Amino acid sequence: MLLETIKLAIRSVRRNALRSFLTLLGIVIGVAAVIAMITIGNGTTAKVKADIAKLGSNLLVVRAGDGGRPGGPRSVDRPLEEKEVRALERGLTNVTAVSAASQQTVRVVYGTASMPVSVTGADTQFLDARNWAVAEGRSYNEQEVNGGAGVCLIGTTVRNEFFGGGEFLGDRIRVGRLSCQVIGLLESKGFSGFGQDQDNVVFMPLTTFQRRISGNRDIETIYVSAAEGASTSAVQADIEQIMRESRNIAPGREDDFNVRDMTQIADTMASTTTVMTGMLGALAGVSLLVGGIGIMNIMLVSVTERTREIGIRLAIGAHEKHILIQFLVEATVLSLLGGIIGILLGLSIAVAATYSLAIPFSPSISIIMLAVGFSALIGMVFGFFPALRGARLDPIEALRHE
Predict the structure, then answer these.
(1) What angle do CA 222, 114, 139 make, to 5 degrees?
(2) What are the distances in angstroms from CA 67 to CA 36, 61, 81, 104, 397?
(3) Burial class, 361, CB count within 10 angstroms (exposed 0-12 / middle 13-18 / buried 19+)
(4) Which mean pLDDT values do the consecutive 10-residue runs of the chain (402 residues) have?
(5) Antiparallel, parallel or unpaired: β 113-122 and 201-205
(6) Is 193 within 8 Å of 51 (Cβ atoms)?
(7) Which of 316, 290, 254, 328 is nearest to 65 (CA)?
(8) Does residue 89 contact residue 96 with C-beta atoms inside 8 Å?
């Protein structure tokens, strides 16, 4: 019985193909918009989390100043010092690395080629704290840091610009006025979510950077990597306490430094993108309601056109429920067909968008199944009134209908 009803519904859809297509277009657009928005949003969230993770595992960043107030720059009255790094190394537990670093954009020259590069001076724990590996060669050692040796690591962008595919280990480049020997190549990290090339970098010993690049012993940033499974909130509280003691900040006075938990930042940014995705998905869902109204309208027209057919079926013994089921199934098939087309279209749009935006393709199976179920539900809900109207027609009046 149900199978025959479905066949009749499909036959009716095919009989008025253009009208059926225009009717289900609202469902197609609504479902496609929801699928595309949510898939792109999921990819954006995954991209944000991956970019933050590239900065380091369970990373906390300590900087001088108040961290910046809304509408104003970050004020730095007193830079970080070496003694504070040592205090953190002695006092912190549940951490894997504590590293001091300073950074500056410097023009780097090799032969006749030159380019501005982000140059970082850091100690030997920097790569561990930032979860960064050496792809070729080696990193500098403790002796080279203490002696202020003229050695450096380069990113893949710097290598490609200066050396192409040729040999580079042992060669020398000029960083500002400093000539340094290339001893290693950093693992590529690509572009960050903010469009910054993370491979356009040069790393060198902190003492070398302080003596030959910055000209002072100030430390810009202290990176602290919490141990796996350790609470970054607890580590942050310990850092703040040790820093206050080391910088002799009296009780009741505000901190002249700030500590940022990258895990919390990642969660906040991911939560923001999730909320935005939900809002865009809900907005796109309005198209589904519009599509449902279109289905109700066309089913009312269909009932009017087929009044005589309904009258004949009722006259030869069909029950009201048979007429009700026929039109209800027809509306559901029409809506479900639009939902399936919308899913395919939405996924195609999402694939194109994720490719152009360089974000992961992250379709949600649960959302796809929900879209299928919701499109079928729209057909049932908006098709019920026209179906009920057709089922309640008087057979005699229906037979008289021209």
Answers:
(1) 40
(2) 37, 11, 17, 19, 80
(3) middle
(4) 62 69 79 84 76 68 70 61 90 89 93 92 90 91 91 94 88 92 91 75 94 89 87 87 89 87 63 66 68 74 67 66 72 82 90 85 82 78 70 59 52
(5) parallel
(6) yes
(7) 254
(8) no
